[in-house]
Amino acid sequence: MRPSLNPGTLVRLATETLRAPRPTFAALRSLDLPRQALWEALLLVVVISVILAETGNLVLVAFSGEGPDAPQFLSPFAFGAIQLFILALSVLLIDRIGRAMGGHGRIEDAILAVTWLQFVMICLQIVQTLFLFTLPGIAGLILIGGLILFLYLLTAFVAELHGFESQARVFAMIFFVMMGVALGLSFILTLLGVTVPR
């Protein structure tokens, strides 16, 4: 019988993930969730992330005020579409490159890894949003810590789902893949004539 994945259980598992990412992710894999449910969960975390991002944007606008110097943000639809594309691409890269390197993970494992990582980041995003209301300076530090945590958990999840022993090699692989994707997207945007606003 599968355990009930209610909000309390999910938060507890997110906390355990910070302490022991590989064993916690292995426990989640043992649930053997169907692929359709995993894709639906991935879509759900994108929607939640967009809502939280919009909340944070409203706070920033309230602090900075209106005018030409006010921060500019993507529309919720555009932000959600970009995030969904990036997460789906991450699933494909984790699955294909991991197996090409000798891993034995399944596509369902890759979806679970990306979805669960995004959920943990959402929990951190909630904490950051709360600090935006009280101590905005600390919210910036949480953002930096979140980036480090993201790379740490992603490395642990990929190592666990593909059965790799060396997390250092997994991290190096992730780093070079991310650099390659960034360069590739930059090249494509250049060909399309898209420039970054200054």
TrEMBL record:
Q: Which GO terms describe its cellular component?
A: membrane
Report how it sits in the membrane.
Answer: Multi-pass membrane protein
Q: What residue ranges carry the coiled-coil annotation? A: none
Sorted alphabetically, which Pfam families does this protein's record hold?
A: Yip1
Q: Sorted alphabetically, which keywords does the UniProt record give?
A: Membrane, Transmembrane, Transmembrane helix
**What region holds the Yip1 domain?**
16-184
Check the record and name the InterPro entries matching this protein.
Yip1_dom
Its subcellular locations are: Membrane
Recorded superkingdom: Bacteria
Q: Which residues cross the membrane?
A: 41-65, 77-98, 110-131, 137-158, 170-194
Q: What is its main location?
A: membrane
Keyword hit for Hydrolase: no
The residues the entry assigns to the signal sequence are: none
Q: What is this protein called?
A: Yip1 domain protein
Naturally occurring in which organism (per UniProt): Palleronia marisminoris
Q: Which taxonomic lineage does the organism of this UniProt entry have?
A: Bacteria, Pseudomonadati, Pseudomonadota, Alphaproteobacteria, Rhodobacterales
